[in-house]
Specification:
globular; alpha+beta; 6 strands; Aminopeptidase; 2 helices
Length: 136
């Protein structure tokens, strides 16, 4: 499935994702996950239709990243500071700003670094990986 250009995708070798489709098979939202480490991955969200948020899209993402499928403990977001809609969305999802990289996106536009820890995620319904082994 092709991610729309308006989502400004950048593909990495380890990119994985979750896509929400409507009954006609048209994409309504996508979560792209990349830059996987032993304990974390980077999160990128595209929401065309906010209706998906009322029907479990966040839970699907949390359970994939934090549950048995991947077993990570941390989500990382990197957002340009001038993308106020995305920053508000991230905060509502439970992401916490931990740092800014001055001029990281462009001159005068910082990168805002946010994280969400598994034990602080209200969306995760699956139990944590018990044996400490991580999948991916």
């Amino acid at each position: 499935m092709q991610i729309p250009d308006e989502a400004r995708p950048r593909y990495c070798a380890d990119t994985k994702g979750i896509v929400a489709l409507d009954r006609l098979g048209e994409m309504q939202a996508a979560c792209i996950l990349d830059t996987w480490s032993h304990n974390a991955c980077q999160l990128h969200m595209y929401v065309k239709n906010p209706f998906v948020l009322k029907h479990g899209f966040q839970e699907e993402i949390a359970n994939f990243v934090f549950g048995e499928a991947s077993g990570r403990e941390l989500l990382i977001g990197v957002t340009p500071a001038d993308n106020t809609r995305a920053l508000k969305f991230n905060k509502n999802m439970g992401m916490v700003e931990i740092a800014r990289i001055p001029d990281g996106y462009d001159k005068g536009i910082d990168y805002v670094i946010t994280t969400m820890k598994r034990d602080e995620c209200r969306w995760c319904k699956e139990p944590a990986v018990q044996d400490g082994a991580q999948h991916g």
